[in-house]
Amino acid sequence: DTGVSQNPRHKITKRGQNVTFRCDPISEHNRLYWYRQTLGQGPEFLTYFQNEAQLEKSRLLSDRFSAERPKGSFSTLEIQRTEQGDSAMYLCASSLTGGFEGQYFGPGTRLTVT
Amino acid sequence: GQNIDQPTEMTATEGAIVQINCTYQTSGFNGLFWYQQHAGEAPTFLSYNVLDGLEEKGRFSSFLSRSKGYSYLLLKELQMKDSASYLCAVPASGGSYIPTFGRGTSLIVHP
Hints:
The complex is a heterodimer. By secondary structure, chain A is mostly beta strands. Chain A has strands spanning 5-7, 10-13, 19-24, 31-37, 44-50, 53-57, 65-68, 75-79, 88-95, 104-105, 109-113. In chain A, strands 2, 4, 5, 6, 9, 10 and 11 form a seven-stranded mixed β-sheet that branches. In chain A, a hairpin with an 8-residue loop joins β9 and β10 (104-105). The radius of gyration of chain A is 13 Å and the shape is globular. The termini of chain A are far apart. Chain B is mostly beta strands. Helices cover 0% and strands 58% of the residues of chain B. The interface between A and B is medium-sized, with 24 and 22 residues.
């Protein structure tokens, strides 16, 4: 499978716990994006990487959120001290620089904070 | 900043044609994307318009008018599998191409 993959697909956690999600982009894509999506809304941008450099972060990304892409390949998104408001679908997407062909999305990780 | 507006929901009959509109406001135009998203699944790329006019791709066509800040997605010969959310997205200027997505239009196709 040469698409974007994300793990885990579902995560249920208790409030206050830390969670980490992984994204493996399409291998030749140098851009990687993280989004959050709640029911009835479009994806909201969180952060993006070009290769291993994190170039932009949304104001939505509080200091409890951190993302890494250590070798310019896979990426992780960590949420510390989760809150119920963090419950959402977390989507990863990748693209070639320029992105005129659009972004390729992974299946997402659905987070439920109880 | 960017602002995108599209209808929340539309219904149509199998075999018919439906037009989903999107209006946008952006400080620097860098094209417009349409994505399809089935319930519980990730968005998939449908089209990208950067010049005015209609681009046809099989049963789906996308139109852009930059002067009016307006686009539409036209779906012909509707099939039940076309029931999905259709997202309009405008990428940021300045090289990042970070898209701002609309809320999506939920299309329900009935027999």
